């Protein structure tokens, strides 16, 4: 079996996330302790509204996800080298923010500490990009349920002079739309009239839309200083749904610039998640393990693909279940 790892993104957060792993996994505890008391407080003690703030959400979800990943590696190692060697991680992908976890797991970002040095300012830059002069968030996002082409037609009709785009292409029948609040109100009215269900999302701004453009160049400059490396496994990219290198063979010296360009652009570009999952399956991946808080990505994989198995690691119970399934060689249904 070929395994693909899926890393959770912003929107998966919830109060208390990661605490169970912190209390039961030495590896997870180290990740949180190294990240510092502020992030532990946000993850373990904060209310939902605090965790919803972009500059809080991004480092908190990143640390929780990497703690879950380290707990997973710890559990795999505990079963011995033959078992560890039998697991083929054929590719990794992360949803939006989760792409930084994917890059860390693949060794592109050399350490969790280095990842936090990127993710913390990324959250702050995106938070500022989505705010008006008084600090109020000026955008939001809504999930729309219907055919992609029908949803995008409604987006075009509702946009007028405002920011409004389809930004997360999650599955065959789910597209997330982001933009200014007035445009989202028009979109909901037009989409509902066309029998498309629209559900507002609890997010603080319009991610992956042109509203994020002010964050792109500052983020690129941060990434250029991050000494990024060639990956140990294939990384599937949000903005194309396929290999982050696009088939190019790069030297070590060219990797940082390429990744910096791609990941800076990612902040203001759509996430092609349906295509990502389809391409992972095309490449022979048939077991998908979601790493981090929640099971949103597992659910999307099941809606998008057939003849696959989905597992997840977000706490000790899910970790134990995943390791048992893998060790028994019965992960594929």
Per-chain topology:
Blueprint: E1 2-7, H1 19-24, H2 26-35, H3 37-45, H4 48-51, H5 54-78, H6 81-86, E2 88-94, H7 98-105, H8 112-129, E3 139-145, H9 148-159, E4 164-171, E5 174-180, H10 181-193, E6 197-200, H11 213-224, E7 234-236, H12 252-266, H13 273-282, E8 287-291, H14 296-304, E9 309-313, H15 316-327
Parallel strand pairs: 1-2, 1-8, 2-7, 8-9
Antiparallel strand pairs: 3-5, 3-6, 4-5
Helix pairs in contact: 2-5, 3-5, 5-7, 5-8, 8-11, 9-10, 11-12
Shape: globular
Largest sheet: 5 strands, parallel
Succession of helices and strands: EHHHHHHEHHEHEEHEHEHHEHEH
Number of helices in the DSSP assignment: 15
Question: Based on helices, strands and strand pairing, what is the structural class?
Answer: alpha/beta
How are the strands of the largest sheet arranged? 7-2-1-8-9
Unreliable parts = none
Overall CATH class of the largest domain: Alpha Beta
- Average pLDDT over all residues: 94
Strand residue percentage: 15-25%
- Count of all domains: 2
CATH superfamily of the largest domain: Malonyl-Coenzyme A Acyl Carrier Protein, domain 2
